[in-house]
Hints:
By secondary structure, this protein is of the alpha+beta class. The chain has one domain (2-97). It has three helices and three strands; from the N terminus they run αβαββα. It has helices spanning 2-25, 45-48, 82-87; strands at residues 32-36, 53-56, 76-80. The protein has a three-stranded antiparallel sheet with strand order 2-1-3. 15% of the residues are buried. Zinc ion binds at residues 37, 47, 50, 67, 69, 73, 75.
Amino acid sequence: xxxxxxxxYMIRKAAMKRNWENALRLKERRPYIMLFAVDDSRDKxxxxxxxxxxxxxxxxxxxxxxPPHNRTCRCGIRTLNDRQMEKEELTxxxxxxxx
Length: 99
Ligand SMILES: [Zn+2]
């Protein structure tokens, strides 16, 4: 069981690396990153705290807070452009509000 979890974690880590590389490629058109949690009872507080945080892709905070955050993390990232930010009424999360 522990082994299975470990490999899930490695798979998520590799998947996030690909997502991140993709986000960097889209950076000019989609300069914002939203972190999202699954937001259910299985999420750890650490992951729930990341839910719906929106930062600029160049924000150094991201480098140390990209998923997976822990062994059971199921968080993901979304890339966003200005139009989507406006449409979904999203704003950048203040630096001093970041967990
Ligand atoms: Zn997480």
